[in-house]
Amino acid sequence: MAANFCGWTLQSPFLYSFKRPSIRSSFIRSSSSTSSNGNLPIKESFSGEPEADVVVIGSGIGGLCCGALLARYSQDVLVLESHDLPGGAAHSFEIKGYKFDSGPSLFSGLQSRGPQANPLAQVLDALGESLPCAKYDSWMVYLPEGDFLSRIGPTDFFKDLEKYAGPNAVQEWEKLLGAILPLSSAAMALPPLSIRGDLGVLSTAAARYAPSLLKSFIKMGPQGALGATKLLRPFSEIVDSLQLKDPFIRNWIDLLSFLLAGVKSDGILSAEMIYMFAEWYKQGCTLEYPIDGTGAVVEALVRGLEKFGGRLSLKSHVENIVIENGRAVGVKLKNGQFVRARKAVVSNASMWDTLKLLPPGALPDSYVTGVNKTPQCESFMHLHLGFDAKEQGVADDLEIHHIVVNDWDRGVDADQNVVLISVPSVLSPNLAPPGKHVLHAYLPGTEPFGLWEGLDRRSAEYKNLKSQRSEVMWRAVERALGPGFKREKCEVSLVGTPLTHQRFLRRNRGTYGPAIEAGKGTFPGHSTPIPQLLCCGDSTFPGIGVPAVAASGAIVANSLVTVSMHSELLDAIGL
Fold first, then answer.
1. CB 246 within 8 A of CB 253
2. Which residues form the Amine oxidase domain (predicted)?
3. Which among 9, 301, 469, 552 is least buried, having the fewest CB atoms inside 10 angstroms?
4. Given a cut of 80, is residue 363 above it in pLDDT?
5. What is the mean pLDDT of residues 59-75?
6. Average pLDDT value for residue range 548-565
7. Residue 509 pLDDT more than 50?
């Protein structure tokens, strides 16, 4: 997986105007030539217009998965990216030899294969791309109850519960695992790569995997099968039905839920949580981190895109989606160039930002109203640091990840309350100069955009607010790194705000994504009222997080090819 912080993959990125790392800055390599002004190295139609079968707007994980799979399906695909590096929320950047992740930080299942694998791993498998990873099984947590090293796996966490929460918490945790782990086979029975957005799904998913799903229900027995009906309900309903009362257990479950999907246990689908529990609390489970950082994920997807003839154009800002006779027929770039899409336009932008790309009246009022009424998660604060480990007195056994919760009573979704810290150079020393560390701390989708709205980024008011609102991250870093750490000794120190998110990721209000709670709403599908316009990414099903956006990109790609082509791909990768 990979979702908020957890399997998690935080889409908490932002670009700084500094030197970028290994990916080339003029990133389109195809058989076509690049125009002299650095715009589109694209094939032209008989009319002289640049064109492709499918034009994808945005090179986030969802857009790249969609584009790369379409190329794998032998479609002529062009991915347009406004910035000078691909990856969107998952891009990396480099300053003074320090290579920073801007978003996803904690992964699992990247090297898994088969029907129950991480959707991103399934896409990489389809592209024939591998992703070397370092493995580990623990992270540090700093809670009101105390600080401890939390380990994944079926037994180690019980020791922490006994020490910090007591025997009642241990009993309730055992009760929870006993109830939900049997449901995991049903939650994981349908590979995301088998799904498509038309009736062909009856062939590629329903009929293909019905036997394994039926086998899962039989294995669970009548009570388990009944419990499986709750997979699409809020996870809190399962927790409540088990009468789990221990405050630590309830708080811990809310924390995991929030890190996974940006909502607490009363807003997350049971299927998501059960999938995560199955990944983290089975025998021999591990977490993974890409050896070359999160940027390596992006590079692998781009390699796959190019390997099959797909094209990526950087610094190609889409100004609007062009509608002719009620259909999406292409896009117009900021420089005025028109790019025709013969089959479809796919937007990897958020639902709110996709609206901005369309001419007035192109969509029904009811659809526009529905988008505008969709609740949004808040935004982020970021702290990126580069420092000398010895000079700062950092321990040799420093963990890669640290979670700080200041006050359970305020709730894990309260602003300035939960801080996440990633020090990936612990496992990947090549991300920093010798003997040094790269660190990323952030507030995970809890920073109110309203505090920042309308501020001039050059003003003293803005700078003062940055200093005030970043203090909680500095304190968390000091707690994690120990008394020897001194702020002023950092060689690199950068603070990102919601305005940074809004500006560089082109995200409406710098948002993390839709705050759609299970039981109260569902993430939209991938089609729109406009023929030939589809959407992927965290504004669409299955939702927020790297596994979810990878799945969304795959679903859109599958929907744009025939059922036979889709089935052949599933056969080729053993699904």
1. no
2. 61-558
3. 469
4. yes
5. 97
6. 95
7. yes
DSSP code string of 375-388: -B--EEEEEEEEEE
Backbone angles phi, psi at 38, to 5 degrees: 80, 15
Average pLDDT on 172-185 reads 84
d(CA 399, CA 44): 52
Is 76 in contact with 31 (CB distance < 8 Å)? Answer: no
For residue 258, give the 3-state DSSP assignment: helix
Predicted confidence (pLDDT) per residue in 234-279, tens digit = 999 999 999 999 999 999 999 988 888 778 999 888 888 888 888 7
Q: Does residue 383 contact residue 474 with C-beta atoms inside 8 Å?
A: yes
Q: What is the DSSP string of 115-165?
A: TTS-HHHHHHHHHT----EEEE-EEEEEETTEEEEEE-SSSHHHHHHHHHT
Predicted confidence (pLDDT) per residue in 142-155, tens digit: 999 889 898 887 77
Q: Coil, strand, or helix at residue 251?
A: helix
Q: Which residue intervals of 150-207 are DSSP H helices?
A: 156-164, 167-180, 184-187, 201
Contact of 468 with 475, CB cutoff 8 Å:
no
Amino acid sitting at position 96: K
Return all residues near 479 (Cβ < 8 A) that are at least 6 apart: 142, 404
pLDDT in tens, 465-503: 999 999 999 999 999 999 999 999 999 999 999 999 888
Which pLDDT band, with edges at 50, 70 and 90, does 10 fall under?
Answer: very low
215 touches 252 (CB < 8 A): no
Asked whether the predicted pLDDT for residue 18 surpasses 60, the reply is no
> How many whole angstroms separate alpha carbon 570 and alpha carbon 335?
40
Block residue for tokens 């839709």: 514
Instruction: Give the residues across from 487 on adjacent strands.
Output: none
* 311 contacts 79 by C-beta, under 8 angstroms: yes
Task: Give the Cα separation of 453 and 498 in Å (integer).
Answer: 9
Q: How far is CA 212 from CA 123, 216, 223, 274, 570, in A?
A: 21, 6, 18, 18, 16
- Calculate the dihedral angle through the C-alpha atoms of 163, 164, 167, 170, rounding to the nearest 10 degrees: -100
Q: What average pLDDT does the chain have?
A: 86
Beta strand spans in 234-276 (E): none
Strand partners, 535: 347
Nearest 5°: the CA angle 350, 352, 357 is: 90
Look up tokens 């910035």; give the residue: 83
CB atoms under 10 Å from CB of 475, counted, come to 13
Distance CA 152, CA 502 (A): 35
Contacts of 110 (CB under 8 A, 6+ apart): 2, 118, 120, 121, 124, 131, 133, 288, 290, 297
Please give the pLDDT value at position 4.
Answer: 40
Residue of 514 and 312 predicted with greater confidence: 312
Specify the DSSP element, H or E, that contains 439: strand 436-447
Residue pair 484/503 in contact (Cβ under 8 Å)? The answer is: no
